[in-house]
User: What shape does this take?
Amino acid sequence: MKVKTILVSQPAPKTETSPYFDLSDKQKVKIDFRCFIHVEGIEAKEVRARKLDLNSFTAIILTSRNAVDHYFRIAEEMRFKVPDTMKYFCQSEAVAYYLQKYVVYRKRKIYVGKRTFPEMAKLFKKHSSEKFLLPSSDKLKPSIPTELDKLGLNWTRADLYKTVVSDLSDLEDVFYDILVFFSPSGIESLYKNFPDFKQNNTRIAVFGNTTVKAAEAAGLKCDIIAPTPETPSMTMALEKYIKKANSRK
Assistant: This one.
């Protein structure tokens, strides 16, 4: 079956140079974007009840922009002045760049990983005497605590925000040829919004092994999977599939 419409379970790109727009133009397909999940902050009173003392940490591990936002939100709500001596360990350049929203970059001790969390091991080893705080959501990759424990660091996890299923009820009578997912939470949202969802002729595109497993566990057939050596990005995987599907007579 030909592909004419795609729903991507992420916010719309903020830049006009997004590969999704190129894909839409080149393959003549309609691509919509919709967040299947969103993030909500955990209230300061709940954080206080866990007896979290922000003053007892000398370093912060930041894995995402959400972690940055909610650490500084909680600090403000708890009237904690983040000291200038605080060290920041950012998983990627994108996270480190975003940190500039809250601190004067050149005046702070900021350490940046390449992209993945395990690649930060060398940074942690050089600063193993620090007391680390890991601001996170209620859903944290199990590999992150495992990695930190393996390094023998003095670290504490603080759930400061949570992943919540978005209301998609307005999509009940809207159908797409392809649904694109990037996390198990997206699959969970699909079935919480539409418990009776049947795949039928809808193609499912998934990114990452954990998303593949979640989709298959839900009984979905994964028609498009990324990343692969041949198609390292979702847009490349979609384009390959669309070319093949739309060339059939």
Q: What stands out?
A: The mean pLDDT is 93. The longest strand covers residues 154-165.
